[in-house]
Write a structure and sequence with these properties.
This protein is of the alpha+beta class. It is built from 5 helices and 13 strands. β2 and β3 form a beta hairpin.
Length: 205
């Protein structure tokens, strides 16, 4: 069964809120200019990132600008316009019936490559300014050969509350913010399993 209209409306609200979350990326003034470090360099230079070992998702393949990833069965691009929100790629659980469609969206950072250090040092205050609570900086992980920060938080928009997990996937010249949004009833272990099942399928094209 496809996502009810009510769930789709909540999905739009969540996506619009997450656009604000993307402002955790530092400005040019904060970063001292665009980073020149490549994804490969950041993954090998004193990296302590853990390897993901989740079973790969087996659903639809989603394509973005220079990459693809696979989402869980039942997830797909809703093929609907979200006013005020223009992600590079987007997919949601179209079979979700709990009033909030769990989803993933990908945005490009405006500065090209952003390092995990920049995300972890400047991102927390930006998330707090966006209204996030229960912010946690997790151990870094390796995604498609590059080191990624991982930050989770609780978000709300009106009466809607939900959890987000953000990862930052970098190629040689671009970092992508990958945000998973889940109903606040989804346990952290399940959120991590779903997110990592998608991230292990990330492929550069």
């Amino acid at each position: 069964m496809r996502t009810p209209l009510r769930s789709a409306a909540l999905l739009v609200v969540a996506a619009l809120t997450l656009t604000g979350c993307s402002t955790l990326i530092p400005t040019v003034e904060e970063s001292g200019g665009s980073s020149s470090r490549s994804g490969a360099e950041s993954s090998t230079e004193e990296s302590t990132a853990g390897e993901l070992d989740a079973a790969p998702a087996t659903g639809t393949t989603i394509s973005g600008d220079g990459y693809t990833f696979v989402v869980p069965a039942g997830w797909d691009d809703p093929q609907q316009e979200l006013p005020g929100f223009d992600p590079d790629s987007f997919a949601a659980n179209l079979q979700d019936t709990d009033g909030f469609a769990d989803n993933v969206n990908v945005l490009k950072t405006p500065l090209g490559v952003v390092t995990p250090d920049q995300v972890e040092t400047m991102g927390l205050s930006e998330l707090e300014a966006a209204g996030a609570t229960d912010i946690v900086v997790h151990d870094r992980v390796s995604i498609a050969g590059a080191e990624s920060a991982h930050i989770s938080a609780a978000m709300s928009s009106g009466s809607i509350t939900y959890s987000v997990d953000q990862y930052y996937v970098s190629s040689a010249d671009q970092t992508y913010i990958v945000t998973f949004s889940f109903s606040d009833t989804v346990p952290a272990t399940e959120r991590q399993q779903i997110a990592e099942s998608v991230l292990v399928t990330w492929t550069w094209v």
